[in-house]
From TrEMBL:
Keyword match DNA repair: yes
Gene encoding the protein: dinB
Protein name: DNA polymerase IV
Top enzyme class: transferase
Catalytic activity, reaction form: DNA(n) + a 2'-deoxyribonucleoside 5'-triphosphate = DNA(n+1) + diphosphate
Entry's EC annotation: 2.7.7.7
Pfam families: IMS (PF00817), IMS_C (PF11799), IMS_HHH (PF11798)
Residue ranges occupied by any UmuC domain in the UniProt entry: 9-189
PANTHER family to which the protein is assigned, alphabetical: DNA POLYMERASE KAPPA (PTHR11076:SF33), DNA REPAIR POLYMERASE UMUC / TRANSFERASE FAMILY MEMBER (PTHR11076)
Requisite cofactors: Mg(2+)
Entry keywords, A to Z: Cytoplasm, DNA damage, DNA repair, DNA replication, DNA-binding, DNA-directed DNA polymerase, Magnesium, Metal-binding, Mutator protein, Nucleotidyltransferase, Transferase
SUPFAM superfamilies listed in its UniProt record: DNA/RNA polymerases, Lesion bypass DNA polymerase (Y-family), little finger domain
Amino acid sequence: MAQAPVRKIIHVDMDAFYASVEQRDDPMLKGKPVAVGYAAARGVVAAASYEARKFGVRSALPSVTALRRCPELVFVKPRFDVYRAVSKQIHAIFADYTPIIQPLSLDEAYLDVTANLRGIETAWATAKEIRARILEETGLTASAGISYNKFLAKLASDQRKPNGQFAVTPDMGAAWVETLPVKRFHGVGPVTARKMQGLGIETGADLRAKSIEFLRAHFGSSAEWYHAIARGEDDRPVDAERIRKSSGSETTFDRDLTENTEIEAGVLEMAEDVWTWCEKAQEFGRTVTVKVKYADFQIITRSRSLSAGLVDRREALRDMSLSLIRSVLPTPKGIRLVGVTVSNFEERLGDELPF
């Protein structure tokens, strides 16, 4: 029986996309620290140029904090219609090489080029040509990660940023993962990373050393995923048909919580994770759901949907999440997990999809 060919996956990630578009369109901004967002008291940075990042300015940072870190920071109002238009240009380039494209947001996507349309022999050469065309046709730079699965390709795209590419081959994947801090892993958010560190898990090697039984005891349904990625394994396909209908984040606490303030703080942290994705992808829903898993593993959910409009402000998501968790407080028993999900995303016409 013929053996299946090794998959060739490219993760393309535009470099400081929103800020780079603004610097491209306004020559006065080139070389300056730029933040896309609003400098208002309750404003938040949506994106930051590499010049701004040198001062510790990052997306989701409150604007007042960003200005304290970088007094010379220039704020530019977001122009999502322009970002979407550029995104469509980039998608058209991708489509010249493969029909198997999975967009993640306006500025990144997975491509399966195992059998690319141009007959280019290697994924490395394919990624290099795609990046060159993006620069030529849009004036923007992109970074790329190349590997045999999605997890490794996404990790690899960060390795040579900005304007570079990096490949993780099958013979180096597992060993390379062992050298990386777990906080870099896709699917390991800040809360989980802190929990792992508390359990002595700092690197991929530390994670690989833990048994599946240990991971199940501490991470529940996520154990199999962590067990696999610690070995450089990820069988997920690049799904060209995938349309994301929700965004969620959840965390298992180090101990069962009973205090209202601690439980609410956990929910707010999950709401912040969800908002970060929604803001970057510019995808907003009508329904907010809070999930609770008790110490005895009973699971309940509470949801609320807006009758009109979308949950398109951070404060709205925070307020709805707090209202929902407070509906089950005070708790009659310890809570081991909370989660927040936004769903019922606004439907878009085909020509308005992120890519």
